[in-house]
Structure formats: structure tokens, C-alpha cells
Design brief:
This protein has one domain: Alpha-Beta Complex (Spore Coat Polysaccharide Biosynthesis Protein SpsA, Chain A). 23% of the residues lie in helices and 26% in strands. The chain contains six helices and eleven strands. The strands form three sheets. Strands 3-2-1-4-9-6-10 form a seven-stranded mixed beta sheet, with helices on both faces. It has a two-stranded antiparallel sheet with strand order 5-11. Strand 7 and strand 8 form a beta hairpin. The longest helix is centred in the last third of the chain and has 12 residues. 40% of the residues are buried.
Length: 238
């Protein structure tokens, strides 16, 4: 694993394979990552944010309406490289990463969910990974509705101790923000060709293997429901 990590040499996996059923009542003609915020696909906003830190190679893991994601980015004029890892059946967050294995060149590699946004400095994220000798790193955002997410318990050094499925309503805790920097050997422990959740099946099993949390005070913005989608439109308009 390379500890001299540079953003321009690091692959970015974007997980865009979900059906987004809760959002289909307002965005039914396209996959959730292409839902528009003020005339821009959300996925464009996310990729622009990540590329601003120097990342250049994006592996788009798609499933539902995958042709629309491929078509949009193949026709787009860009200095960035887009690689398409497509699944024929839902594979979950970890299964999608496993399915992209043949395209992943860097060690470690960055992963981001395509339906959420957290305005962190990704160069600082990389520096934390290196300075703390992490093997796997999860971005943790503070949320006061953590009963919707489940929370993550960490020690003073940032080592992850426990994942909690649900918390008391109204409690403020650190939650998984859906941004990861992962050593490539995580691919060895993800089963092939079945639906696997990285949050619920993989991360709890590697708590004792240098799994760390990077805490941020930046808000976590999720566009997965009609209410959150409308809220996101207002936030990005500002």
C-alpha cells in the first residue's frame, strides 16, 4: 500500500447503483445521482467538488438506469477520466466496489456515495490517513437526527470502536458520511457476485484492523427523499 498518496494518482469510486425508490415520486425519469439541483445533475456537483482537490480518475458504479449515467458522461467534454463499472443486479455498496475490482489501480482508493454531500477537505482527509497510519478511513459527520442513520463510536485517537444501528431520537452523534479511503486489500474480504453492504457487513468485521474515523463539523446533505432533495436545492442555490 502506497503511503505517499497524491490525489491525482488516487482512483475515486462513486457508488451510483441504487434505485432511489423514495425519490422516484419527484425524479422518476432518471437515476437518483442525475437528479438536478438548479439545472445541474447532483453527480456533477459531487464530482466537481472531489476533482477540485486534484482527483482525476472516476469509476462510476451504476446499476439502475445505468445507460443514462454512461450516456451522460460519455457525451460530456471533460479533462477527467470516467470508467463505467456496471451491475446487472443490485450488489449493494460493498458488492459494487468488488464488481469494480478490475478497474481499481490505486492503493488506497477513495469511495463516495452518489446521493450525499459533505463539504470536507479531501487533502486533509488523505493527510489524516497517512499521519495516523490508517488502513481504512471513514468520514464521520455530526448529525442531530442520528436515529435515522445510526452512529459510530470512536476513541480519542480516532479509532472506531463500535457501530450503533439506532440511537435515541434527537441525539447528536457522529454518523457515517459515506466517504471512505480504503486499502485495496479490502477487496479480498468482500464476497463476489452477491449483494453486500459495506456499512453493515464489512466495516463491523474490520474494527480491529486500523479502521479509523475522520471527524468533521461539516453537515451531511442527503438527497434521498423528496424533502431532503428540496432542501438540497435551496442550499446549493445559495
Amino acid at each position: 500500500m502506497n503511503k505517499n498518496i497524491k490525489a491525482h494518482d488516487t482512483d475515486v469510486i462513486i457508488l451510483c447503483g441504487g434505485e432511489g425508490r423514495r425519490l422516484q415520486s419527484v425524479v422518476g425519469d432518471r437515476p437518483k445521482p442525475l437528479a438536478e439541483l438548479n439545472n445541474r445533475p447532483f453527480l456533477d456537483i459531487l464530482i466537481e467538488h472531489i476533482s477540485n482537490f486534484g482527483f482525476r480518475r472516476f469509476i462510476l458504479c451504476s446499476g439502475y438506469m445505468k445507460d443514462k449515467i454512461r450516456g451522460y458522461y460519455q457525451s460530456k467534454s471533460s479533462s477527467l477520466a470516467f470508467i463505467f463499472s456496471e451491475e446487472d443486479k443490485p450488489l449493494g455498496t460493498a458488492g459494487a466496489i468488488k464488481n469494480a475490482q478490475s478497474y481499481i489501480q490505486s492503493d488506497p482508493f477513495l469511495v463516495a456515495n452518489a446521493d450525499s454531500f459533505c463539504d470536507i477537505n479531501l487533502n486533509e482527509f488523505i493527510n489524516f490517513y497517512v499521519e495516523n497510519n490508517a488502513k481504512y478511513l471513514i468520514c464521520l459527520a455530526k448529525a442531530c437526527d442520528s436515529d435515522s442513520f445510526g452512529s459510530v463510536k470512536i476513541d480519542a485517537a480516532g479509532r472506531i470502536l463500535e457501530f450503533k444501528e439506532k440511537n435515541k431520537p434527537g441525539s447528536c452523534d457522529f454518523v457515517n458520511a459515506g466517504i471512505y479511503l480504503l486499502a485495496k486489500d479490502i477487496l479480498k474480504i468482500i464476497p463476489e457476485m452477491r449483494k453486500v453492504s459495506i456499512e453493515h457487513e464489512i466495516f463491523p468485521g474490520i474494527i480491529n484492523d486500523n479502521l479509523m474515523g475522520y471527524r468533521t463539523n461539516q453537515s451531511l446533505l442527503d438527497i434521498g427523499t423528496p424533502e431532503n432533495y428540496e432542501k438540497a436545492k435551496l442550499i446549493f442555490r445559495k
